[in-house]
From TrEMBL:
<dbReference type="InterPro" id="IPR014464">
    <property type="entry name" value="CvfB_fam"/>
</dbReference>
<comment type="similarity">
    <text>Belongs to the CvfB family.</text>
</comment>
<dbReference type="InterPro" id="IPR039566">
    <property type="entry name" value="CvfB_S1_st"/>
</dbReference>
<dbReference type="Pfam" id="PF13509">
    <property type="entry name" value="S1_2"/>
</dbReference>
<feature type="domain" description="Conserved virulence factor B first S1">
    <location>
        <begin position="70"/>
        <end position="129"/>
    </location>
</feature>
<dbReference type="InterPro" id="IPR036388">
    <property type="entry name" value="WH-like_DNA-bd_sf"/>
</dbReference>
<dbReference type="InterPro" id="IPR012340">
    <property type="entry name" value="NA-bd_OB-fold"/>
</dbReference>
<dbReference type="Pfam" id="PF17783">
    <property type="entry name" value="WHD_CvfB"/>
</dbReference>
<protein>
    <submittedName>
        <fullName>GntR family transcriptional regulator</fullName>
    </submittedName>
</protein>
<feature type="domain" description="Conserved virulence factor B first S1">
    <location>
        <begin position="5"/>
        <end position="64"/>
    </location>
</feature>
<dbReference type="InterPro" id="IPR040764">
    <property type="entry name" value="CvfB_WH"/>
</dbReference>
<feature type="domain" description="Conserved virulence factor B-like winged helix">
    <location>
        <begin position="217"/>
        <end position="273"/>
    </location>
</feature>
Amino acid sequence: MLTAGKSYQLKIVKNDETGIWLDAQNLGEVLLPKKLAPKQAQEGDLVWAYLYHDSKERLTATTQKVKAQVGEFACLKVVSASAYGVFVDLGLDKDVIIPQNQQKRDMEIGRKYLVYLYLDEDGRITATAKTNEYLDQTEAPYEVKDAVNLLVLNESDLGYNAIINHAHRGVLYRNEVFERLEFGQFKKGFIKRIRPDGKIDLILQAGKETRDKYSASILKYLEKNDGFAPFHDKSSPEEINKAFAMSKAAFKKAIGGLYKTKKIKIESDGIRLI
């Protein structure tokens, strides 16, 4: 059954001066306004569209890039407020309300907050800042090395909290993150470990993919610096991280692999490209 707040591949059933009409099955025919319709769209073609209620409460289709679907978490900016609640920018012509009773505290215009999207009793897209109740508390169905989608949350003493596949919480440890992460950012990641207490450790890259990336980074550095890099066993972790955006342990593993494949020589004062 189709609902508002989600994207579907829908068939064009007719085309008129207002736009193209899509078969939304149980929801009937829905208009995709002309300004958003694909050029040269023909009856019978399939179009990916997101369904929502416009400012006149009419079910409408859009091809605009939407930041989240119903049933998902997102970090959205508050753009206005009223007596009924605040409104966040979802990427639609119409902003989405967070009702007063769905706010944990007063929410400020211009700030981003973690929210969860759901349909209210009238089937309209609504957001809530009370997100904990929508996290899956059941045993996580993941295996170590599984690829997952991550939503980066707040930074903590350990690293970064993240939501996994819009369902579970996990942690990216600070000493294993070698790039700038921002609140609300979506990233690809991997399951590193599922602890006995059910908590999940994450990593942004895994196994051979990580080693290959680090090896390529070292080779690129060597090529740009006359084939030599002055880093060795006594180099500090900070120096290596600044030059290559990786830990000292990862650096040592990567140069070990490059040495075995005879791409570099390891000298007392650094490494040299062969």
